[in-house]
Amino acid sequence: MTETSANTETAYRLVLISPDADLANTVTNAFQASKAFELQVIAKPAAEAEDVLRSLEPRILIIDLGSGGPDDLEALGACADALGAPVPTIVIAERCESALVRRMMQLRISDFIVKPIAVADLIRTCVQVLGSAGEAEKVEAEIRTFLPAAGGVGTTTLVLEAASLLNNKGLGDGKGTCVVDLNFQHGSCADYLDIDPQFDVDEIENNPERLDRQLLEVMLSTHDSGLNVIAAPHQPSELRSFKPEVVIRLLDLVSSYFENVVIDMPRIWFPWTETVLRGSDKLYVVADMTVPCIRNAERLVRAIERQVAPEAKPGVIVNRFEQKMFDGGLKRADLDGVLKDSFLGGVSNNYPLVREAVDRGVPLQSVKPNSNISTDLADILFAGQADEVREKKSLLGFLSKKPKRAA
Length: 407
What we know:
- It is a single chain.
- The chain is an alpha/beta fold.
- The protein has two domains: about 1-135, Response regulator (Rossmann fold, 3-Layer(aba) Sandwich); about 140-380, P-loop containing nucleotide triphosphate hydrolases (Rossmann fold, 3-Layer(aba) Sandwich), CATH 3.40.50.300.
- The protein has 16 helices and 14 strands.
- The protein has helices at about 20-30, 50-55, 70-85, 100-105, 120-135, 155-170, 190, 200-205, 215-220, 245-255, 275-280, 290-310, 330-340, 350-360, 365, 370-380; strands at about 1-5, 10-15, 35-40, 60-65, 90-95, 110-115, 140-150, 175-180, 220, 230, 260-265, 280-290, 315-320, 345-350.
- An eight-stranded mixed sheet has the order 9-10-8-11-7-12-13-14, with helices on both faces. It has a six-stranded mixed sheet with strand order 1-3-2-4-5-6, covered by helices on one side.
- Helix 1 (about 20-30) packs across helix 5 (about 120-135) and helix 4 packs parallel to helix 11.
- The longest helix is centred in the C-terminal third of the chain and has 18 residues, at about 290-310.
- The radius of gyration is 23 Å and the shape is elongated.
- Residues about 1-10 and about 385-405 have low confidence and may be disordered.
């Protein structure tokens, strides 16, 4: 059974799914005086609302998941499927469990509010969601995550070059590419580009919902090449495990405002690592041309497939790839034998180019366009893609150089 507010001169339809009468009354009272919204309440649990939802065309969907248990998570996915097309969705629940956070990221949920809700927060959230979803011809952000198989394999170099290649191939509409350095302790992305890291984790750690578009802009570093970077100041003496909600909120917001998101992951496995991997569109495990590293890359790929995201299909990029006819080291056939179908390709070893780019604080392409590194990496990133720009899709939201000291 559904109940509709008396507001008939509305521009946007909000649909609330909730068996909680008190919550329904609170939300109804919040929007009944607004001429911008029409509220429709489905007074049922999310698990029973799928059939009713099929006949509706909400501009924003608000789902009350109660305790957020396993059945509620299944119902959340069923409601998303019932709509047939992406719709900005706000989830309300009694608490924020890790399983719920993971599921919301998979479904690209726009925002999340913990009960008891504040009316002002809900209204502000709806307005922000509409602002994001209402931008003309918004594209679905593609999240690419790079995970090192060992220390010192050149992951940051590949992350920045991949981001530069994606940025140059973008839509040209100002949305661009954002690099997110999730190595909060020893991240190097800002150092490699000679920019100041601005992301203050301490400011939002205990209140992730404070992170909005305005605060994101303050904490965003922008390079002269056009790359946007989220990076935190170094904390070399302090190993901290931040709440998953901080990372999820950050990635949800970044993916709402950029065409491409490229993530530089730390080697250490944190409580939020699995969530990030599950929410990524493409996973790249970075290794180098050594036997222990190749073996570790193979183990990491299988662990991700078995324990984290069987559908993720992580691939291995072998950095500093060299193929010498009379060298006694690893050969291409050895990599194929160990990595099998997960081997995506090798990136050439060009240390002088990398060193110069890092010392100047610029992407590799600024030093030498179409270098062997750029060409090799582009072949991997764009394998199987047409030359034309990706088709635009609507987004469902889960944000002069100084000389540098030689590295």
